[in-house]
């Protein structure tokens, strides 16, 4: 049986509970801005949206799935003893701060251009986080790739909303 897990530790029950805790924490932090600001405002409803704007239900579903992946990735890095772990955790915290800042900038401040600056910085920070995670645990880095794809899409969406309504 040990030959199946060469070089990898199988998680025990306590470790799995910790992983669930990381997933819950990332989801709570990620969802927190929605308590302050949301797209359910007359200002946002009145904005012209690009033709590729997804159905409203897509956003909470996609973000929840992405935050689950981020929580697992964070847990993998946190439990590692590899060099670069602290840098990777710091990179994750930095990108998460920008992720959390975007919603109030866009919806509460009603400032798509400010939000665009934040999401462009977020995109760069996500790339940096993926690179930092890759040095610690390649699986963790791979789990962030869908997040980068979504942030890329969200950046284009933010740009188009700003352009259409400037």
Description:
It is a single chain. The protein is mainly α. The protein has one domain (10-165): Ferritin (Up-down Bundle), CATH 1.20.1260. 73% of the residues lie in helices and 0% in strands. It contains 7 helices and no strands. Helix 1 crosses helix 3 (58-78), helix 4 (85-108) packs antiparallel against helix 5 and helix 5 packs antiparallel against helix 7 (145-165). The longest helix has 25 residues, at 112-136. The protein is elongated, with a radius of gyration of 18 Å. Mean pLDDT is 93; it is low at 1-6. Its main location: membrane. This is Tryptophan-rich sensory protein. Belongs to the TspO/BZRP family.
CATH architecture: Up-down Bundle
Please tell me how large the radius of gyration is: 18 Å
Measure the end-to-end span.
62 Å
Query: Taking all residues together, what is the mean pLDDT?
Result: 93
* Uncertain stretches of 5 or more adjacent residues: 1-6
Number of strands: 0
User: What is the level 1 CATH name?
Assistant: Mainly Alpha
**Number of H/I helices:** 7
Sketch the topology as an H/E string, one letter per element: HHHHHHH
User: What is the beta-strand fraction?
Assistant: under 5%
SSE class: mainly alpha
Short descriptors:
Ferritin; TspO/MBR-related_sf; transmembrane helix; transmembrane; 0% strand; 166 residues
Briefly, what is this?
With 166 residues, the protein is mainly alpha-helical. The chain contains seven helices and no strands.
Helix and strand arrangement:
Layout: H1 13-31, H2 42-46, H3 58-78, H4 85-108, H5 112-136, H6 138-143, H7 145-165
């Amino acid at each position: 049986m040990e030959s199946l897990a060469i070089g990898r530790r199988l998680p025990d029950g306590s470790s799995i509970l910790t992983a669930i805790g990381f997933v819950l924490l990332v989801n709570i932090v990620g969802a927190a801005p929605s308590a302050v600001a949301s797209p359910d405002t007359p200002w946002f409803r009145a904005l012209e949206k690009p033709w590729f704007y997804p159905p409203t239900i897509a956003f909470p579903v996609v973000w929840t799935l992405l935050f689950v992946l981020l929580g697992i990735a964070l847990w993998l890095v946190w439990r590692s003893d590899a060099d670069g772990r602290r840098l990777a955790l710091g990179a994750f915290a930095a990108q998460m701060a920008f992720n959390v800042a975007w919603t109030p900038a866009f919806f509460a401040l009603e400032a798509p251009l400010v939000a665009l600056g934040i999401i462009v910085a977020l995109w760069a920070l996500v790339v940096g986080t993926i690179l930092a995670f890759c040095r610690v645990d390649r699986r963790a880095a791979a789990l962030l790739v869908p997040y980068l794809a979504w942030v890329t899409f969200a950046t284009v969406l933010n740009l188009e909303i700003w352009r259409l309504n400037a």
